[in-house]
Amino acid sequence: MSRISLLWAREIGDCTSCSFQRAEESQRVFDFQLSDDCQIQNVQTGGINSLHLDPVENRYLLCGSSDKLIVIYDTWNSTGKKSYTIQQIAVIGRPQHSRFAHQYSISCVQWYQHDNAIFTTSSTDQSLKIWDANALRPAETFKYKFIVNTHAMSPLASSHNMIAVGTSDSSVYLADMRTGSNSHILRGHRHPILAVKWSVSKEYEVATGSEDNRILLWDVRQARGHLLSFDQHNGKDRKSKKGSTAHNGHVNGICFSTDGLFMISTGTDNRLRLWNATTGQNTLTNYGRIENSYKRPVQMSFNTDSNTVFVPSDRHVLHMNVQEGTLVKKLSGHFNRPTCCEFNPRNQEMYSGGQDGNILVWGAPSTSIGDVTLPATNQGSDRLRSVVEPGNERTTEPRPTVDLTADTWSDDETDG
Q1: What is the pLDDT of residues 53-72, one digit of tens each?
Q2: Domain definitions of the chain by residue range
Q3: What is the pTM assigned to this prediction?
Q4: For tag attachment on the chain, is the N or C end more exposed, with fewer CB atoms within 10 Å?
């Protein structure tokens, strides 16, 4: 249904406001291109490794780069102008913060799910830091014996504050923010961990991807091992001596849909796979060849209703239809490999970071209402056309106003 049909259906009551909003948001996402009205002031000199938008206000964009900088951007347009530049409001890693900053490349950044005054960062300097966003100082630091590739916090946890940490070791460490120590270790992989994501529907479940080509689903309350091992063949291939594998290459990206029903993964076998998050079954959706030769984690992002997903690939960001497996659009703009994507549901924008050191803003093109053509099917359409068509000199009389508080009762005497 076209936008103008939606507008007319909304006016006559055939479409609810919620349905109209969902349809419009979905249409805008399908029209994404490099934004003409918004750009980001890049202060990094190294590649962008991680992006995360605060889940409380959907306003502050957290960025971690390979030149050990941590940057916070304010994505709200406070200028009142159509065209604006997103400015940085805080930078950590410059000389004034040298004794607090990481020593090497930032591998992952994430806001605390319940309060945007706290965020976490991990680095190849073998540490995980919990930051006070107001003081720009770490409140707690976890040190490890291995390089920290990635970490994640549960987006809905209310009874625990554990952070799942994936390192160059084959184990997943669970750091407890309350005690400042590691609560326990998840052992099951045989090679370094490249991807960690908590379920968005079950607060105690976390999925991990590794260089051993496997994806494991864990319940952190159980010590007996993992719940599921995702099998790309759905149990039909019994010849493999290494057990079930999710990909034929390293698994370096995992992302749950917003409803928690599905999980999508990417690997260095140049394949994208969609899984039933509950049963671990491969849906066998064919997305074609997705170029992925990254030796580091890849950050994908679903849109609001999870019908499409943004996937970094080669020098492009691929906008894929999740259920159909088709390419919606190839977003080109980076000069080097994009590594991370983050969708902003409030602004209906998507941010992508790449090894070229740029953060690009993608959004729907600006459409003037004067470009809309309405069908002349009734008086209401004629009335609307007289307003929206440029150069239309015909004017229409305004509708008579009715005083809703006036006494409209009558009797025989007044009627006579």
Answers
A1: 999 999 999 999 999 999 99
A2: 1-31, 36-363
A3: 0.82
A4: C
